[in-house]
């Protein structure tokens, strides 16, 4: 599955979750130990903003949480940057670019696959932290899972980027197996 096709489903589903967050949930903890809901929303908006800038101007990608970009309406902030992101990944030269990240330079399609995986796991985090339902299509989960199992190295399991893989329960869904691989306890 092409990364743009993955993101065509992942980003709108994430947007639905973001718009479903109530103001009283912003300080809720998430299954991602380093993020509260507000930080997670800032990670989404900041990451997309930085990726758009990287694709348009060649600036380095910074996926650090940017809760300052949320304003009074995180859903509106996400929608605006998601629209920009959708346009940026469809530019004729977008997939030919090499993006600068904190750990090195990688081709845009590889980074976008990572982003689809990251957003899928964090969508589960957000849904769990805010009591929302998240059920992406199995083929989308399979594509993210296949990428993650090739891309996530033992060195990345530092407890900051990813925690140690967790054994999923018997009968776990494909999404639960993916989030367990990312170090969550579904």
* CATH architecture label name: Up-down Bundle
The total beta strand count reads: 2
What's the helix-strand series? HHHEEHHH
Structural category is: mainly alpha
The span between the termini is 25 Å
Uncertain segments of ≥5 residues (pLDDT<50)? none
Mean pLDDT: 93
Helix content: 40-55%
As for the number of domains, it is 1
The level 1 CATH classification is Mainly Alpha
Contiguous helical run count: 6
Principal-axes geometry comes out as globular
Radius of gyration over alpha carbons?
Answer: 15 Å
> Sheet with the most strands?
2 strands, antiparallel
β-sheet strand percentage? under 5%
Strand order of the largest sheet: 1-2
Walk me through this protein's architecture.
The chain has 186 residues and is mostly helical. The chain has helices at residues 3-19, 37-57, 74-88, 108-130, 138-151, 174-181, and strands at residues 98-101, 104-107. A two-stranded antiparallel sheet has the order 1-2. It is globular. The model has no long low-confidence stretch (mean pLDDT 93). The protein is built from six helices and two strands, in the order αααββααα. Strand 1 and strand 2 (104-107) form a beta hairpin. It has a single domain (3-181), classed as Up-down Bundle (Four Helix Bundle (Hemerythrin (Met), subunit A)), CATH 1.20.120.
What distinguishing features does this structure have?
Four Helix Bundle (Hemerythrin (Met), subunit A); 2 strands; 186 residues
């Amino acid at each position: 599955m092409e990364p743009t096709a993955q993101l065509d489903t992942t980003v709108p589903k994430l947007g639905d979750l973001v718009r479903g967050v109530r103001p009283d949930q912003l300080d809720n903890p998430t299954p991602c130990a380093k993020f509260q809901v507000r930080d997670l929303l800032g990670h989404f908006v900041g990451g997309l903003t930085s990726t758009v800038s990287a694709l348009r101007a060649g600036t380095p990608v910074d996926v650090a949480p940017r809760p300052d970009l949320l304003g009074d309406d995180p859903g509106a902030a996400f929608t605006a940057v998601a629209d920009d992101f959708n346009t940026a990944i469809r530019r004729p030269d977008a997939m030919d670019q090499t993006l600068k990240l904190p750990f090195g330079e990688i081709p845009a399609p590889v980074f976008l696959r990572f982003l689809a995986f990251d957003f899928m796991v964090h969508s589960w985090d957000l849904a769990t932290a805010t009591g929302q339902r998240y059920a992406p299509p199995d083929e989308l989960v399979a594509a993210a899972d296949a990428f993650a199992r090739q891309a996530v190295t033992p060195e990345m399991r530092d407890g900051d980027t990813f925690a140690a893989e967790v054994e999923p329960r018997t009968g776990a869904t494909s999404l639960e197996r993916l989030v367990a691989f990312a170090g969550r306890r579904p």
